[in-house]
Amino acid sequence: MGEIIAHVLEGTALAEGGVDGVVYEPGSEAGSADADAASAAVTGVAVVFLATQALLEQATALGVNLVISHEGLFYCHREDGATWLPDDPVVRRKRELLRRTGITVVRCHDRPHRCQPDTITAGLVEALGWAPQVVTHEPAAAVVAIEPMTLAQVARHVKAKLGIPYVRIAGNPELVCRRIGIAAGYRGGAGVAVPLIQAHGLDLVIAGEGPEWETPEYVRDAARQGRPLAYLALGHAESEEPGMRALAAQLRERFPGVPVHVLRDEPLFSVL
Ligand SMILES: [Zn+2]
């Protein structure tokens, strides 16, 4: 197991202020960053956006004992559940499941984001079928130049390519989009999106999520002032799952004897 964990975490370390590392090891009550999971034999790997209760149950049924999770187990970017909400019933039940099943969980967040290009962004662009249209890969986003499509057509395209039931848009559905910024995960805020729009003359930013009063409100004011722009929110998981799928493909290539599953939970939100 140590070899796979080392591969997954290559080039990143908690010492650098990141969040990657072994975040849950069986037998370790608190979960630990310097855990010694290395000697266990791997029965199977599950790669997930976030190790939800349902996906941990699925991983157990598949005989998996190593889960690679992009986001944290316990509802906070930097906390591991031992210090954050130690007495919470939901956290306790999740930890009980891990203890019972003997699954090791590794957080793999910073490493793929620090690759050049960012593995998660590149995976999303690839899944959208726009890899040949990439103009540039910036650290926090990619820019693509596509054949003109209306915002409504882009929304249909994105839903079909990612297999997701809905997206949210701000802007006119008839707006013709040619240059699009693609920002996976929590990069939909104005700090990333607005300079990107200006630097690359974008019509549209597609992001995982971000504060609603930042970029979407910027887009609304810009349109009112006569410069139509648009914003499309995929959802955080929806924007990062393709990149984790790409990471799983890398693992299969590197460790051909190990079963590597990609598990995806149901969409988090439903629209009523
Ligand atoms: Zn991410």
When the domains are counted, the total is 2
Radius of gyration: 20 Å
The main β sheet shows up as:
6 strands, mixed
Helix proportion range = 25-40%
The number of E-state strands comes to 11
Question: Beta fraction of the residues?
Answer: 15-25%
Give the cofactors and ligands: zinc ion
Shape: elongated
Give the averaged pLDDT, no decimals.
92
Report the order of strands and helices: HEEHEHEHHEEHEEHEHEHE
Please state how the strands of the largest beta sheet are arranged side by side: 5-6-8-9-10-7
Determine and state the CATH class of the largest domain: Alpha Beta
Describe this structure as you would to a colleague:
By secondary structure, the protein is an alpha/beta fold. It folds into two domains: 112 residues, Udp-n-acetylmuramoylalanyl-d-glutamate--2,6- Diaminopimelate Ligase, Chain: A, domain 1, CATH 3.40.1390; 123 residues, 3-Layer(aba) Sandwich (Udp-n-acetylmuramoylalanyl-d-glutamate--2,6- Diaminopimelate Ligase, Chain: A, domain 1), CATH 3.40.1390. β8, α7 and β9 form a beta-alpha-beta unit. α2 packs parallel to α3 and α5 crosses α9. It binds zinc ion (ZN). Keywords: Metal-binding.
Summarize the structure.
Helices cover 35% and strands 20% of the residues. By secondary structure, the protein is an alpha/beta fold.
List the helices and strands and how they pair.
Blueprint: H1 2-9, E1 21-24, E2 45-50, H2 53-61, E3 66-71, H3 89-101, E4 104-107, H4 110-114, H5 119-127, E5 134-137, E6 142-150, H6 151-162, E7 168-170, E8 176-183, H7 190-200, E9 204-207, H8 215-224, E10 230-233, H9 236-254, E11 260-262
Parallel strand pairs: 2-3, 2-11, 3-4, 8-9, 9-10
Antiparallel strand pairs: 1-4, 5-6, 6-8, 7-10
Helix pairs in contact: 2-3, 5-9
Bound molecules: zinc ion.
